[in-house]
Specification:
mainly alpha, Methane Monooxygenase Hydroxylase, Chain G, domain 1, two-stranded parallel ribbon, two-stranded antiparallel ribbon, globular, binds protoporphyrin IX containing FE, Indoleamine 2,3-dioxygenase, heme binding
Length: 400
């Protein structure tokens, strides 16, 4: 079987889950999802055998849980997830080694299918298996992120070639494999350009609307806390960072390391394997001091920096600027009608976290700058210019 196929159906026994999960946006619209979930049967999880079935079940249970918690927006969240969801959700999560919350591995990696199975993997021919309220913007957000993942595939496949080449001392093999990686990272940035909106997945960790976390009824009496879905949970950049020897400083490093607990264990293991190989790629490049090899290495770093710069621009455009604008309007407290529209659309998550906006921008910027530090021929001059204008425009608004 091709690895690029998501499971789209569960055994018939699980129909109540799949039917409810497919209707989450509609049931939220009619404010009836919670009532609907209370009427579902408590299902056993042992009829699911394969990894892909479990991944689809995790996705379905995650979507229902997100809908259940946020049905009334962030003003009326719940403190307890009923056992009908909580018990099977935690069982499935445990079998997969994933936390019981919607992760990148659910919303993006296990959540798509081709409309025409013979057709291409592109936006027109892809659809989500399950969605959340937000229509086209949710579709675009998850599917474009999936296309970014897809663009990275030749790069990920080249990593073992780099490692083998380093072990065997083959400069030409390593150079060629590094070229595939920089090409793939460039492709990731190109795919990212299809992104036209945002969707913030909510969390019950460090979230003022759910300061006490969430009790998973029938699992444990104490509330649990989990971070929300984010592409920081994608293994891609972690893999490339480890290969190139990028060392993240304490704060962003702690965050990124925590995000690895939100990945399927095999992904986390891959990152660890890449990081533990010796001699390290960077040491090999320094030791051989071959001009072609050094520039292939530096091109990879440069592409990774450029991807992170583009990401910073996207986050500025879609989150930080609208959040700052909405905050400003809200503090004036009497917006005109168009102003109210801006307030309504802005992602409140950042505003309400107070310093959250600037903390996130600073985390992203630090991660980008740490990447730039691993070049052999010194920090990259081109890296800081592309988002400089936006950042300085933002600085005044967000006191970065
Ligand atoms: C509209 C699209 C996107 C927005 C608004 C966005 C937003 C964010 C935010 C706010 C963070 C900070 C950490 C957090 O709160 O989780 C973050 C981190 C991160 N995001 Fe995105 N993101 C987007 C798309 C993507 C895509 C498509 C990728 C690549 C697959 C990606 C990869 C990352 C990575 C790797 C981090 C960790 C920081 C780093 O390693 O540089 N993001 N993103």
């Amino acid at each position: 079987k091709s690895p690029f196929v998501s499971k789209t159906e569960l055994p018939k026994y699980y129909q109540p889950w799949m039917e409810t999960a497919r209707n989450v946006p509609k049931l939220i619209d009619s404010h009836s999802l919670r009532t609907h979930i209370h009427q579902m049967p408590l299902l056993e999880t042992h009829f699911m055998k394969s990894h892909r079935e479990l991944r689809l079940a995790h996705l379905a249970l995650s979507v229902m849980t997100m809908g259940y918690v946020w049905q009334e927006g962030d003003r009326d969240t719940v403190k307890v997830l009923p056992r009908i969801l909580a018990v099977p959700y935690c069982e499935v999560s445990q079998r997969l080694g994933l936390p019981p919350i919607l992760t990148h591995a659910d919303a993006v990696l296990a959540n798509w299918k081709k409309k025409d199975p013979q057709g291409p993997l592109d936006m027109e021919n892809l659809e989500l298996l399950l969605s959340l309220p937000g229509g086209e913007s949710v579709r675009g957000f998850f599917l474009v992120t999936m296309l970014v993942e897809l663009a990275a595939v030749p790069g990920v496949k080249a990593i073992p070639k780099v490692i083998a080449g380093v072990r065997q001392g083959e400069v030409a093999t390593v150079t060629r494999a590094l070229d595939s990686i920089s090409l793939a990272i460039n492709g990731m940035k190109e795919a990212f350009k299809l992104m036209h909106g945002v969707h913030l997945c909510c969390r019950w960790k460090d979230n003022p609307c759910m300061a006490e976390g969430l009790v998973y009824e029938g699992v444990q009496a104490e509330p649990m806390e989990f971070s929300g879905g984010s592409a920081a949970q994608s293994s891609l950049l972690h893999c490339f960072d480890e290969l190139l020897g990028v060392k993240h400083e304490t704060k962003s490093g702690t965050f990124l390391t925590r995000m690895r607990d939100y990945m399927p264990p095999a992904h986390k293991q891959l990152i660890q394997d890449i990081s533990s190989h010796r001699p390290s790629l960077r040491d090999f490049v320094l030791e051989r001091n071959n001009a072609g090899l050094v520039s292939a290495f530096d091109r990879c770093v440069s592409q990774l920096v450029s991807f992170r710069s583009y990401h910073i621009n996207v986050v500025s455009r879609f989150i930080a600027v609208p959040a700052a604008r909405a905050k400003q309007l809200r503090s004036q407290d009497q917006g005109s009608e168009p102003d109210q529209a801006i307030i309504g659309k802005a992602p409140t998550a950042l505003e309400e976290r107070g310093t959250g906006g600037s903390a996130i921008m600073s985390l992203l910027k630090t991660a980008r700058d740490q990447t730039s530090n691993v070049t052999i021929h010194g920090p990259l001059s081109s890296t800081k210019t592309s988002d400089l204008t936006l950042i300085s425009e933002l600085s005044s608004r967000l006191s970065l």
